[in-house]
């Protein structure tokens, strides 16, 4: 995967993804397999500017960002977009996938969609999440909500009037009208790639790592909730 924009739901998710990519082989240079930069509102303005420029200039492979931070940025021809968490807003989803394959270039948008509802943080407290451990639901005065990505996917498909192709754990992407001959990021009609199977095989390790992170985050959340119950 030469370059990709990685969208996360929260700033904390962005920080965790960046930290993980750095740990497994990231850095600030393209020669590093998981080189990355982060873009969200808690980063200093100059840092955000420098990070965006580094990605646009092809100096790093991954730009990890939130929806808010990505609005208005001018990046074209990105071969891949990865939605670590599917957006609960249809327009945000459209803005996300609009970053891939622009300027007549082919691209692939990948969304990791949970098959069950997940309880996630949704801070309305004064601290906006800083040192907050209230795992009660929002309607009960807490700072969590149920996040139903399957429903959000259905809403997006209804809004777009299309069925978004899905893959199982084998990560086999069905060949479509392009006959499997696509190199993402290249202009249409100029591809000399070796097909879908080659590219999906390349993506499989990254996909597996992201799925492990999703499971770990949910497990940590549930352990926190259990600990609170035990002490209360």
Explain how this protein is built.
The strands form 2 sheets. This protein has a 5-stranded parallel sheet with strand order 2-3-1-4-5, with helices on both faces. A two-stranded antiparallel ribbon has the order 6-7. It has about 230 residues and is α/β, with parallel strands linked by helices. Strand 4 (about 80-85), helix 4 and strand 5 form a beta-alpha-beta unit. It has helices spanning about 10-25, 45-55, 65-70, 90-95, 150-160, 195-230; strands at about 5, 35-40, 60-65, 80-85, 110, 120, 145. The model is unreliable at about 190-195 (pLDDT under 50). The chain has a single domain (about 5-230), classed as P-loop containing nucleotide triphosphate hydrolases (Rossmann fold, 3-Layer(aba) Sandwich), CATH 3.40.50. It has 6 helices and 7 strands.
Summarize the structure.
37% of the residues lie in helices and 12% in strands. It has helices at 11-23, 45-56, 67-70, 90-97, 149-160, 196-231; strands spanning 4-7, 36-39, 62-65, 80-83, 108-111, 118-121, 144-147. A 5-stranded parallel β-sheet has the order 2-3-1-4-5, with helices on both faces. A two-stranded antiparallel ribbon has the order 6-7.
């Amino acid at each position: 995967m030469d370059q990709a924009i990685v969208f996360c739901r929260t700033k904390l998710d962005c920080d965790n993804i960046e930290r993980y990519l750095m740990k497994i082989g990231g850095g600030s240079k393209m020669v590093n397999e998981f080189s990355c930069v982060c873009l969200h509102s808690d980063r200093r303005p100059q840092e955000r500017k420098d990070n965006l420029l580094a990605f646009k200039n092809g100096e790093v492979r991954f730009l990890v960002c939130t929806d808010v931070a990505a609005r208005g940025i001018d990046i074209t021809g990105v071969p891949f977009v990865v939605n670590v968490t599917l957006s609960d807003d249809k327009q945000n989803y459209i803005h996300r996938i609009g970053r891939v394959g622009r300027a007549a270039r082919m691209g692939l948008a990948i969304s990791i969609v949970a098959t069950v509802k997940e309880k996630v943080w949704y801070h309305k407290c004064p601290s906006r999440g800083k040192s907050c451990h209230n795992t009660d639901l929002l309607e009960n005065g807490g700072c969590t909500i149920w996040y139903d990505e399957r429903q959000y996917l259905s809403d997006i498909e209804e809004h777009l009037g299309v069925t978004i192709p899905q893959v199982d754990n084998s990560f086999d992407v069905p060949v479509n009208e392009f006959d499997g001959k696509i190199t993402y990021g290249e202009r249409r009609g100029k591809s000399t790639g070796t097909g879908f199977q080659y590219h999906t095989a390349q993506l499989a390790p990254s996909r597996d790592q992201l799925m492990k992170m999703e499971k770990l985050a949910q497990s940590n959340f549930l352990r926190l909730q259990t600990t609170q119950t035990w002490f209360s």
